[in-house]
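Might I ask for a little of your time on a matter of protein folding? What I wish to show you is a protein chain and, alongside it, a tokenised description of its three-dimensional fold. I should value your view on which stretches of the chain appear to form regular backbone elements. You will find the record immediately after this paragraph:
***
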Amino acid sequence: MGGQRGERRRKRGADFGTDGNLFVATDGGGAASSNDANAVIALDRQTLQPKDWFSPGKTAFVASPVAFQYKGKHLIVAANADGRLYVLDAASLGGADHRTPLSASAPYSTPADFAHGALATAENADGSRWIFAAAGPLRADAAFPSANGAVAAGAIAAYKMVDENGAPTLQPAWISRDMTSPTPPAIVNGVVFAIASGEHKSADAPLVAAQHVQRSKPAVLYALDAATGKELWSSGTAIGSFVRGIGPSAGDGQVYVVTYDGTVYAFGIPLEH
């Protein structure tokens, strides 16, 4: 890979690919001259040695990649600060020049407004593959065929994987209702559980902890139809604090939400039998 010694790259979360390798996404870490800056990197699962990489250029990756199989291919999707989602072939992340993805979405999010770890994926009952991303304010030219109201603060964006000109491509599907600082969603039984975290975020001068808490507001958990983004249910005023960077988790018929004040909330969900 030829990474420069002494430079520190911030690694977003890692994901095991369906081909057995480990994939990480990085930002520039203060310099963007080496191969492991602003890149999605494939690592050998036993030695953790770099095997391949893809970089779109000078903009950083801002969320953990997700890995899945699609029509016999091992694919990776990663979100970049340029507001795009990149679809990569795990067998050759960026082609011969390490710069060529299988496809890339049109920009839809303002730079750096993806939540960390903001991608989720699910396979529908009909075999279709979907990608869900949490993002801040949308670009004015973002085009989705289905919307669920005006978006000012943030939203969950849904894409369906389709074949276009022989390449796996992310087709925009829907945008959720407006959400304040949404976190990565969880998908259960065809329902997208997403949290409007309520966390105050600003590009202004850093706030002390007390100011940060004061300017944040209680989180709300939403259940959204995975095919349309339509709101099915919300927790309303049940949650008493904001959520800081942690998406919902699900298991045993419950969806769990952990708030900044250390409280764990459990909400029951219907199970298929």
